Records
---
Amino acid sequence: MGALLSVKEVVAGYYEDVDILHGVNLELIEGTTTCIIGPNGAGKSTLVKTICGFLKPKVGSIVFNGEEIGGLKPHEVIRKGISYVPQEKGIFPYMTVEENLMLGGWVIRDDPGRLRECVEEVLDKFPNLKRKRKMRAGMLSGGEQKMLEVGRGLLLHPKLVIFDEPTAGLAPKLAIMVYDIIRGLKEEGLTILMVDQNVRQGVSVSDYTYIMEQGRITGGGPREEVMTSLKEIIRGWLGF
Ligand SMILES: Nc1ncnc2c1ncn2[C@@H]1O[C@H](COP(=O)(O)OP(=O)(O)OP(=O)(O)O)[C@@H](O)[C@H]1O
Ligand SMILES: [Mg+2]
């Protein structure tokens, strides 16, 4: 299968005169899981935000499903079929589980019937959430809150789901649950891009891994290959 997403020579940053990404190249093959690893501040979240429309590339192109999406607004990117589960906590604690899910369908709010259907589908997929659908999201456990974020990301049947640090701050058991969810999504045929600090687990659930350092992709390879050189890669980041 071909590339679903292709990032070419992308330069981007938060200010006009400061670039964080210095010509990033990356391809996601349809139906595969790809991981980006790299030290803190390497620009991983910045890259993901640029793909999702929060930052506009100053140079380069981002082609998704055969269409240029570089510079589109976040809601337009969602409509194209890309869903984003951010690194920052994204639930609204005083709203119910159901209401939090509805917010994931903001771009189809004009079609309440379809929105309701989509919400029910997600609730069927996550029985824990279904049982607590009327509960305030802030009352859920950490793992359930993560599930809610993931569920909300799946609401509109995306072609590509992007997870930025999906297991950050989670207890090991919950992290395993999240990786299981990610594996399940891949089995359903979704294309997945994730950024992960849990380098070993991230690489092991992914088909391909890119290494990012100082705003550039500095390496990468298929799972087995990256797995065997992981120690050297991490040693390189630590500078010894
Ligand atoms: N909102 C922002 N405004 C200005 N600069 C930012 C902003 N967010 C990040 N940066 C800067 O961009 C650079 C890359 O940050 P980014 O968050 O992309 O790194 P990261 O690889 O995701 O790191 P981490 O592993 O810590 O999540 C850093 O130097 C950071 O200070
Ligand atoms: Mg980050």
---
Amino acid sequence: MPSLDLQDIPRVETISKEEFINNYFKPQKPVVIERFIEDWPAYSKWNLEYMKSIAADKVVPLYDDRPVDYKDGFNEPHATMKMSDYVDLLKREPTKYRIFLWNILKEIPQLQQDFSYPDFGLKLMKGLPMLFFGGRDSHTFMHYDIDLANIFHFHFEGQKQCILFDQQQNKHLYKIPHSLITREDINFSNPDFEKWPALNNAKGWQCQLKHGEVLYMPEGYWHYMKYLTPGFSMSLRAIARNPKNLSKALYNVLIMRHFDNVMRRIKGQKWIDWKNNQAIIRTNKHFK
Ligand SMILES: O=C(O)CCC(=O)C(=O)O
Ligand SMILES: [Fe+2]
């Protein structure tokens, strides 16, 4: 059976600032650091039960895997639930509901005492520690982040599969124009190559993250995350340094996002359908 051409992301136990900058940041290569946060209180404290106890009555925004609808705003949640109910659901059964981009600094400030901003030689954005939760077998669609930042993704409880591609692979990925995602009907954990033949030419990376491990994703890297068991992660970020990525980030934030919203308002579902179709036409043009 054909499968995606994915290399295992290199793993190290720990890393110095110099090693990180020279071996991974400068060449823009991903890495998993296995034992970097063992001295954080979060390493022993953070699990689903703890999050439930600390945020029980908070109402959290939830996302499932429904395709983008023109009526939804950019990143608008599909449902909400009390955190205690959500954690109970995660533990009880597989669920598609995920928490995506939840700013813990704002929501539960005391969690800040449980971690520190590591010195990887990059300036981390202090206001933006984001949390992500998911149930067994749920996935976060393939996307790259609007600011093309360097992302440090710390995982807690359970196991998560991550598949990454760099921006050079865009032409093989059925990327949707004027957006940050690929076709949502591609199952990246087991793609249908008859339907999506260009994926044969994509070269990417993969890993399975365990509790306490941190994944470095270089600037603008595409990422697809599948929760193999219920769990959650925290992302810290550093602004893109490569001028090309930085200008792409500015374009996305200042122009692309608003243009897309305006087109949704004017053209409705036709705009979404056109974009989905263009993803195939553009990728096939390159493939043939
Ligand atoms: O883990 C997830 O569900 C998504 C993570 C993500 O997209 C990110 O860290 O930027
Ligand atoms: Fe992301």
